[in-house]
Automatic annotation (TrEMBL):
<dbReference type="Pfam" id="PF00795">
    <property type="entry name" value="CN_hydrolase"/>
</dbReference>
<dbReference type="InterPro" id="IPR001110">
    <property type="entry name" value="UPF0012_CS"/>
</dbReference>
<protein>
    <submittedName>
        <fullName>Carbon-nitrogen hydrolase family protein</fullName>
    </submittedName>
</protein>
<comment type="similarity">
    <text>Belongs to the carbon-nitrogen hydrolase superfamily. NIT1/NIT2 family.</text>
</comment>
<dbReference type="InterPro" id="IPR036526">
    <property type="entry name" value="C-N_Hydrolase_sf"/>
</dbReference>
<dbReference type="InterPro" id="IPR003010">
    <property type="entry name" value="C-N_Hydrolase"/>
</dbReference>
<keyword id="KW-0378">Hydrolase</keyword>
<feature type="domain" description="CN hydrolase">
    <location>
        <begin position="1"/>
        <end position="240"/>
    </location>
</feature>
<dbReference type="GO" id="GO:0016787">
    <property type="term" value="F:hydrolase activity"/>
</dbReference>
Length: 261
């Protein structure tokens, strides 16, 4: 699987963000990728704690998903990106999976970021406890969002889906702070190593977030990383033989005696 991971800092202007995404994707050649991963909340940043996300949330057939569909068709690829999905009440923090023909799947963030003095649940609603995995270019891909990373049981639940994913995708807006980059890198490597999967993490950059988008292989080693918070695109080839070999040498999934279900 050929992937591109896009790091950028989103604005609270949704139209401006669509321009930022178009600019970031402009350097990707059509047909050169199977999957493009954008950060959490790239449709519209979280903004300040009193910013009304319900007022700016979009439907799944709104301008954001429509623009991603156009990009996916032009690039002949699949795009995963984060948005705020409109509902009758508080919106969902949703990942959309978009192909050339439009929306393919959604994942609504299960674990809301009520931590480090912040309460995401004041402005957003949690999704149903339903792990979501999807086939992309012949590879099974599991979906997680940001704070989900701190809950290894979600990654394990994804390993109990059939077929077992070879890749976990983690769009994020990982808030900056003391030791936060260390947490980010350590948790991503742990999820990769304990589940013998590639982990693909697209983070927001800028002043508020840690950046450091990266790709980790099933051995827990970093394949590539954005070293900082600037807008950037990194690329990697995810090899099925690497996953297979890691599971042969380290059959921890096969040796499990405790299940998440």
């Amino acid at each position: 699987m050929r992937i591109a991971v896009v790091q950028l800092a989103a604005d609270i202007d949704a139209a401006r963000n669509r321009e930022l995404i178009a600019s970031a994707l402009a350097g990707i050649e059509p047909g050169s990728t199977d999957l493009v991963v954008l950060p959490e909340a790239v449709m519209h940043d979280f903004g300040s704690a009193d910013h009304d996300l319900a007022a700016v949330a979009e439907s799944l057939d709104g301008p954001f998903v429509s623009s991603l569909t156009e990009h996916a068709a032009r690039l002949d690829t699949t795009i995963v990106a984060g948005m705020f999905e409109r509902t009758d009440g508080l919106p969902y923090n949703t990942l959309v999976v978009v192909g050339p023909d439009g929306l393919r799947s959604t994942y609504r963030k299960i674990h809301l970021y009520d931590s480090f003095g912040y309460r995401e649940s004041d402005r957003l609603r949690a999704g149903a406890i339903e792990p979501v995995a999807i086939d992309i270019a012949g590879t099974r891909v599991g979906l997680m969002t940001c704070y989900d990373l701190r809950f290894p049981e979600l990654a394990r639940a994804l390993m109990d889906t059939d077929p077992v994913p070879d890749v976990l995708v983690v769009p994020a807006a990982w808030v900056a702070g003391e030791r936060k980059v260390d947490h980010w890198r350590t948790l991503l490597a742990a999820r990769a190593l304990e589940n013998t999967v590639y982990v693909v993490a697209a983070a927001q950059g800028g002043d508020r977030y840690t950046g450091h988008s990266l790709v980790v292989d099933p051995w827990g080693s970093i394949v590539d990383e954005v070293r900082g918070t600037d807008t950037a695109v990194i690329r990697a080839d995810l090899e099925p033989r690497v996953v297979a070999r890691s599971r042969e040498v380290n059959p921890s999934l096969a040796n499990r005696r405790m299940r998440s279900t």
